[in-house]
């Protein structure tokens, strides 16, 4: 039994409506249609047509509740802001680590690869939203297109690479604790193969299984979005059924997951003492270069400042 849903919030909402509709139809079949006949009208006045009376939702007993729809729209806005902030901060962090050549080492190379996976994950979410939910009038949850499948596969690959580079961080730390004599170049190639190659193999196998063992038209039903997560909340929700407080689960997983890239960039780059010292040293050198030569007096002579 699937214990963690990978549906997009909008699809979760659509499928829940479909299940409620089926339940309603079955109850009507069992108990019969209890609604009575009636009319809804409005008057033509000097100021134009009046409001319908009785109101539609009162006459037809249909609840016009948009609370769920607005809730998921708010969640989507929050995780869009989160992924956008993470994308910006991670891009700045990668540029900093690339420009500061004295920080080029195996540890920071691995950090940059991890940053890149978070960047790709954010981009994949934006591509997925632009592809699957560009129009509110289209039900993409039951519509299977080439662009839909490609965006889902790309999203899966980016999230899987993110998990594997987190594994690489742990393996690298463990290798430093176990042995102090490591061939860094060989280790980096091994880590790159683990971080990028293994997810690619898994994605290819997953695509083949979907093509040969399931209807291709159902590709998007259960995999519109693999919610990118890591942490304790992921472990908690993985043991809960899909129907357990869907709104809370979606809010926690999407909103917290979208800001993880920002947290990683802050911890591994912006708060890194080596990065701060190197930036401070660059700034001091820049100031020395700016004020090293100063024109003096009318003679136009120059002097070196003992700064």
Concise synopsis of the structure shown:
By secondary structure, the protein is mainly alpha-helical.
Q: Could you explain how this protein is built, in words?
A:
- With 307 residues, this protein is mainly alpha-helical.
- The chain has a domain at 68-274: Rhodopsin 7-helix transmembrane proteins (Rhopdopsin 7-helix transmembrane proteins), CATH 1.20.1070.10.
- It is built from ten helices and four strands, in the order H-E-E-H-H-H-H-H-H-H-H-H-E-E.
- The strands form two sheets. A two-stranded antiparallel ribbon has the order 1-2.
- The protein is elongated.
- The N and C termini lie far apart (70 Å).
- Mean pLDDT is 69; it is low at 1-6, 215-231 and 293-307.
For the secondary structure, the number of strands is 4
How many angstroms does the end-to-end distance come to? 70 Å
Multimeric state: single chain
Mean pLDDT across the residues is 69
Any descriptors?
10 helices, Rhopdopsin 7-helix transmembrane proteins, transducer, transmembrane helix, disordered N terminus, growth factor binding, mainly alpha, 307 residues, 4 strands
């Amino acid at each position: 039994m699937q214990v963690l849903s990978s549906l997009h919030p909008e699809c979760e909402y659509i499928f829940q409506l479909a299940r409620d509709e089926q339940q309603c139809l079955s109850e009507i079949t069992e108990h019969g249609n209890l609604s009575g006949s009636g009319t809804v009208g409005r008057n033509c006045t000097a100021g134009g047509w009046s409001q319908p009376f009785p109101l539609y939702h009162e006459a037809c007993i249909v609840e016009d509740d948009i609370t769920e729809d607005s809730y998921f729209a708010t969640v989507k806005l929050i995780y869009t802001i989160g992924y956008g902030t993470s994308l910006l901060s991670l891009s700045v962090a990668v540029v900093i680590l690339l420009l500061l050549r004295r920080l080029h080492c195996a540890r920071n190379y691995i950090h940059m690869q991890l940053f890149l996976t978070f960047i790709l994950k954010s981009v994949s979410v934006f591509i997925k939203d632009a592809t699957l939910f560009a129009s509110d009038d289209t039900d993409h949850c039951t519509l299977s297109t080439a662009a839909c499948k490609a965006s889902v596969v790309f999203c899966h690959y980016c999230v899987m690479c993110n998990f594997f580079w987190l594994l690489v961080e742990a393996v690298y730390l463990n290798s430093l604790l176990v042995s102090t004599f490591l061939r860094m170049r060989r280790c980096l190639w091994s880590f790159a193969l683990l971080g990028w190659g293994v997810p690619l193999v898994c994605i290819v196998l997953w695509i083949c299984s979907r093509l040969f063992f399931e209807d291709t038209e159902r590709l998007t039903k259960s995999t519109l979005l693999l919610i990118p997560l890591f942490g304790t909340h992921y472990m908690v929700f993985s043991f809960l059924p899909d129907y357990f407080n869907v709104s809370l689960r979606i809010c926690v997983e999407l909103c917290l997951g979208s800001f993880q890239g920002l947290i990683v960039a802050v911890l591994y780059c912006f708060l890194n003492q080596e990065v701060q010292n190197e930036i401070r040293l660059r700034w001091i050198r820049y100031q020395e270069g700016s004020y090293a030569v100063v024109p003096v007096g009318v003679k136009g002579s120059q002097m070196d400042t003992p700064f």
